[in-house]
Amino acid sequence: LCLALRSLILDEVSEDVYKDLLGLPEVVSEVRRRLSFHPVDRRAAYERVAGVDAGSQRVPLASRWFAVVTALVYQLPEARRYFTGPESVKLPYSLSGERFQEVVGLRREAKLFETAAGFLANRGGVDLLLVDGPLAFGNWWANKGEDRDRAALVSSINLLLDLCAEEGVAVAGVVKRATARYLIDYLGLREATQLPDAFILLQTMRPGERTGVFSPGEALRRTVRAAPFMDRISHPIHSFYMRSSPNGLAPPIRVDVPEYMLSRVDELAGHCYATAVRDGVPLALVRADEEARVTKRFVDGVYSELIPRLESRLGAPSLAAAVWGELS
């Protein structure tokens, strides 16, 4: 079976890459013709920087859907941490696994922005706040999860952006694994390729380059005539891609900024490039990611403590039975 799987992966991926290669030169040529590219001045323009990331993990109980979500701000150069209490997500198994994951995703993102806003309100003292993830949200977010969770996410995003504008704090969302096609749609190349922006740009850009700024919301309106979720964000969002790593296997990152940050794009790009580590990700976000991640191993360890606690207190450890095969 392992040999059969190996052959399948090697053969299928090789064939797909060959097919992609046939159409790439024309698409890359069109992207270069329609889009401006700019060299990035590798300069750390901000002294006090904070990165914020969120994490979540399912606890595989047999009785109900259960997950935990958390978020953390990591501040440089002091290596200070800020976080609020983690939260749980509990739903009945009458809801599908897909809907449960949507709710967890919404609450995790809301927790991220709420924590960042709490940090600014209670700690502050930073010049730049980097969010691990987007400020530009596709249309599928408009139907994701529950109404109240979508509203909470929009509210938390707007709160953070308003706070940053009031306090004069530079802010940006950094998307490390961009799969969106906002730029392809913005350039009018939707029918020319099915490949995502970042993959096309990896074949197009040199390390230390960024694209011109474009509007993801406008890209959606041009292609599907609406941007219902993005229209609820209080500040128009603009984006650019930047190739911040020389690694030929690391696609460019996407950087999302509110409109009031447009005059600071060059210094923001320079700072992200100057502090990039691990495939081009700014150091503040790498540290936040390490601290906020909730691993399956951690949850397994906590669950191993839960069973004897229930047995001693209730004499019924079976009430916390786990889904078969989900715990090590």
Protein topology:
Blueprint: H1 2-34, E1 37-39, E2 49-58, E3 65-76, E4 80-82, E5 87-91, H2 97-122, E6 128-132, H3 147-167, E7 170-175, H4 182-186, H5 197-202, E8 209-211, H6 216-224, E9 237-243, E10 253-258, H7 265-274, E11 276-277, E12 281-282, H8 283-292, H9 296-313
Parallel strand pairs: 2-6, 6-7
Antiparallel strand pairs: 1-8, 2-3, 3-4, 3-5, 7-10, 8-9, 9-10, 11-12
Helix pairs in contact: 2-3
Q: Could you explain the architecture of this structure?
A:
- The protein starts with a helix and ends in a 15-residue tail after the last helix.
- With 328 residues, it is an alpha+beta fold.
- It is globular.
- Strands 1, 2, 3, 4, 5, 6, 7, 8, 9 and 10 form a ten-stranded mixed sheet that branches. A two-stranded antiparallel sheet has the order 11-12.
- The protein has nine helices and twelve strands.
- It has helices spanning 2-34, 97-122, 147-167, 182-186, 197-202, 216-224, 265-274, 283-292, 296-313; strands spanning 37-39, 49-58, 65-76, 80-82, 87-91, 128-132, 170-175, 209-211, 237-243, 253-258, 276-277, 281-282.
- The mean pLDDT is 93.
